[in-house]
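Entry 12.
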Amino acid sequence: METYLWLRSASGLSAKTAEAAQAGLPNTWQGVTVLCENEPVGMGRVIGDGGCFFQIVDMCVAPEHQGRGLGKRIMAELMRELEQRAPAGAYVSLIADGDARFLYGKFGFMPTAPASIGMYRTI
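Predicted 3D structure (tokens):
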């Protein structure tokens, strides 16, 4: 849990509380952590219902390790697992911040607009 909280913060993702991480992390369908000299430097997760819907979340790489293809390696592993284990027709979604859309496009993700738009709300 500490690694998760640290990587989110170090990479510029929004902070999560320890309580939220403790409740949410056990619901990970697939997770990837990249280590450099036994230290975590990147991660990504798949969450979902295990059948119909999946979402890729928590994609991040510590700033000093960005630009080395680690995000691409994390995505490749998450997609490999989805393609092997998720049922045919499963809907996989994600939110692409900034230029991350170019990375996700390499894995077949397409913008939903104008047919639909992503929406969110925090509690």
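Annotation: The first strand starts at residue 30 and ends at 36. The chain has four helices and four strands.
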